[in-house]
Design brief:
Keywords: Amino-acid biosynthesis, Aminotransferase, Branched-chain amino acid biosynthesis, Pyridoxal phosphate, Transferase. The protein is α+β, with helices and mostly antiparallel strands. The chain folds into 2 domains: 5-120, D-amino Acid Aminotransferase, Chain A, domain 1; 126-284, D-amino Acid Aminotransferase, Chain A, domain 2, CATH 3.20.10. The protein contains 8 helices and 16 strands. Strands 7, 8, 9, 10, 11, 12, 13, 14 and 15 form a 9-stranded mixed β-sheet that branches. The structure holds 4'-deoxy-4'-aminopyridoxal-5'-phosphate.
Length: 293
């Protein structure tokens, strides 16, 4: 039988045997961290950066990952090879592990678990890329930095899930999230950019955005192509009156937003800057990262 191999705590197990204890704190409390990564034609895009973010998230939660950066890099590559995948979606999950039943105290749980899953990537509908998407500002605000900091890519995605619920109930794919000050943070799982007055602007991560690897790549590429890129506060007014708005993320890559809260953005279709950046991004993803060899 064809079966995917999943790396679990030092061994490779078949997909159907990849089971986690009901006492794992990732399950009980969302107590863990994760990464979503893509491999393109034998190149794991920005693997080092993803692993860096994984360690930063874990460090901030006092989860001590029992592997080095290089070991995790090798495990990801090996898992892809074992599954004969050179183009894939990769999920790294680290939970604090199985603790003392329902005891919340993290210090009585010192056995973090590492799981690496690799799968064929299911591309988004081409309609999103051809026509762009419509989004709506949702009532749920982004977690404040002094609660569960949005820069931590933790297993607790409830803030984002509430946003997704609100967006979907309103008939939209995604929602625009404001922070508690009313400035734009990001969308459910993507960073946001606007193009206005010859400037490409994205919110600083301190305003409630994850430090997206795609976001950082787009900033670098745009600067390389001579764009004036700024991290700055963005209001809803700025979004409504922008020439272009687009979102970035590992799964979606770059998707144009053509309507926000009923306001048409620019010409109401994917704009030339997003299109240019996306074309260059697609060339870049097969080059920058770790080779599956
Ligand atoms: N924001 C959130 C909340 C996310 O979950 C993601 C996806 N990881 C992003 C932004 C985009 O980040 P990246 O480009 O690293 O996928």
């Amino acid at each position: 039988m064809m079966s995917d191999w999943i790396f679990m705590n030092g061994t490779y197990v078949h997909r159907e045997d990849a089971k986690v204890s009901v006492f794992d704190r990732g399950y009980l409390f969302g107590d863990g961290v994760f990464e979503g990564i893509r491999a393109y034609n034998g190149n794991v895009f920005k693997l080092k950066e993803h692993i860096g973010r994984l360690f930063d998230s874990a460090h901030s939660l006092l989860i001590s990952i029992p592997y080095t950066h290089d070991e995790i890099k090798n495990i990801v590559i090996e898992t892809l090879k074992k599954n004969h995948l050179d183009t894939a979606y990769i999920r790294i999950i680290v939970s604090r592990g199985v603790g003392d039943r329902y005891n919340l105290d993290p210090f009585v749980c010192m056995n973090p678990q590492l799981i690496v899953i690799t799968e064929k990537f299911n591309a988004f509908s081409s309609e999103f890329y051809d026509n762009g998407v419509e989004v709506l500002t949702v009532p749920t605000r982004r977690n404040r930095a002094d609660t569960l900091p949005p820069q931590v890519k933790s297993l607790n995605y409830l803030n984002n899930i509430l946003v997704k619920i609100e967006a979907k109930l309103a008939g939209m794919q995604d929602g625009l999230i404001l922070n508690t000050e009313g400035y734009v943070a990001e969308s459910t799982t993507q960073n946001l950019f606007i193009y206005k007055n010859d400037k490409l602007i994205t919110p600083p991560c301190s305003q409630g955005a994850l430090e997206g690897i795609t976001r950082n790549t787009v900033i670098d590429l745009a600067r390389e192509y001579g764009y004036n890129v700024e991290e700055g506060l963005i209001t809803r007014y700025d979004v409504y009156t922008a020439e272009e708005v687009f979102m970035t993320g590992t799964a979606a890559e770059i998707i144009s937003v053509v309507k926000v809260d009923g306001r048409v953005i620019g010409l109401g279709k994917p704009g030339k800057h997003a299109t240019k950046l996306f074309e260059n991004f697609k060339k870049y993803v097969v080059i920058e990262g770790e080779k599956i060899e």
